[in-house]
Amino acid sequence: MALNDDRFQEERPRLGCGRELDDLWASIDHPPTPHEQSCPDCRHARAALHHLASVTQAMREADPQDPGLEPGDRVRNAIMMVARAEVRRGRRAPLRTTELGTIDISEQALTALIRFAADTLPGVRARRCTIGTSDEGRRRPVAGEAVDVGDIRITLRVAVASSVGIPAAMVALRERVGTVVQAQTSITMAQIDVVVEDLYDV
Amino acid sequence: MIRTGSPSRASPASLTSVPLADLDESTVVARAQDGDPKAFERLITVHQGGVYRLCFRMLDDRGHAEDIVQETFIAAWRGLPHLATTQAFVPWLYRTATNKCLDQLRQRKRRPVDPTAELDGPSTGAWDAPSSAEDPRTSPLLSSRGAVSLSNGVSPDPAEQVETREQMRALARLLQTVPPGPRACWLLREVHGFSYHEIAAIVQLPESTVRGRIARAKRVLAEGMSPWR
Amino acid sequence: MSDEPAEATVVDLASVTRTLRTALLEQPGILRLEPTVHSTLTRLRASAVDSVQRRLRSEDDGPQHASSDGLALSLADGLLTVQIDIATDIGHSALTLAETAQTLAARTIERSGFTVGSVAVTILSIEGGSAPAERPAPEKRPRVSG
Questions:
Q1: Domain locations in chain B as residue ranges
Q2: C144 vs chain B: nearest CA distance in angstroms?
Q3: In this predicted complex, what is the ipTM?
Q4: Most B-contacting residue of C90, C96, C141 (CB-CB within 10 A), to test interface
Q5: Rounded CA gap, B46 and B24, in Å?
Q6: Which of the following CATH numbers is that of domain A91-200: 3.20.20.10, 3.30.70.1350, 3.40.80.10, 3.10.350.10?
Q7: Fewer CB within 10 A of the terminal residue: chain A, N end or C end?
């Protein structure tokens, strides 16, 4: 079976005996059929594919262990530098105005705080958290815009351990989130909606 | 670090959370979607190696592979909030990286391509990484650091290891002769373990086309690895 | 208000920025001064990401403005306006720390001979106890460099 120049046309390659290569590959781990034992095309192809399979497996296993096949640290650093800079584009919630000037918190810091507070409860893993106010409707928040801290409503999505009693956990969760946010920022939240979107096994 | 004697009520020493490394991936992705940089960095830790190896095997150039990893994750950071489901993250990552690799290979095609010249010949232009001037036996296709330990099989027979390493090097070299489309599909299936269905979604082609491409790549590789007739 | 003819500007803004940075970072509970849109993106603009890595030093944008990560100072009509972006430790009330940062900044500025216009503080991150997020993955080997 020689290589043809048209080997990459959109047609599945076949062996000289007419069999599709894909079929042969699919049964490569099974003992050869009577046809495969007698057909020289199939015998050769099986041997070659076996060999390819073992080298491929070696590569699949060796590559992730090879420190030379990891990107350099500069890649992570550059990505994180952009990420950290861009995350700050969220809205701001004003917390207080002193005689020296304003104090505010970024929406991202606030949602991260809420997730952190939720996370401290055993059996609860915080996922997404959105902050809204009652007059907001479905309008997309604009970067740099101020959040009305007198009327903050959050929706927090969580995954809960399958062993946890959900109603009690939700009460504790609202309590914990409210307390932590209040202590850190003085914000009293108007509403805390919790959505259990997943269960996980412990 | 929690300081004791702090004025805050919110800081009992018990306020600790589960380390990110112990969380399920959906939770980590969800937090990254919310703009949590630490969760995002965890995703980099977990996935950058795989994405890099895909790019490297596609492009045979460390610098360009790194560039694409960087672009891919920055695009991921920007695109994460709009991702429909957390499960879509990994395929999305590989789709973005694959597309960028294919784009780059298309650009390269404008120059005369001779795969062997690119590997061990004199520099043929801007695409050549410094390593391409090396001895072909330590070609950039495989890490030239001899520290690769082969975990397949229990026998640490040095001769066998050298043999396997040679074979992997040959496979990597041969892979560069496979056209980019089939090469990407083959890598995604055989090295990265995606299903045909997932690959179809990644390369945005029908599953039957993906199967055909992988079969064609296998044929070229199998023939090249041990030529029959 | 001093009637002295801008004697203070002899102390350049860049050095006030440095002093202020040190003073703030010495405050327990303030973990970092955070790079922001102010301090990063304006300098980054549309340029390549690589260039970001070269600008880690405090930069002097001329006599009227100075900024470094998390700090932006500008001087107009003899008044110094400051924007501070902080990351705080959850072991402290973030709001209390922000107020402390304001006071600290005002004191530092006055000691440098400037008159304080306003000091605005933004809390960009509140961080707390979990195991370090970014250890190298355990299965990974130490990176061989070179």
A1: 23-111
A2: 9
A3: 0.76
A4: C90
A5: 12
A6: 3.30.70.1350
A7: C
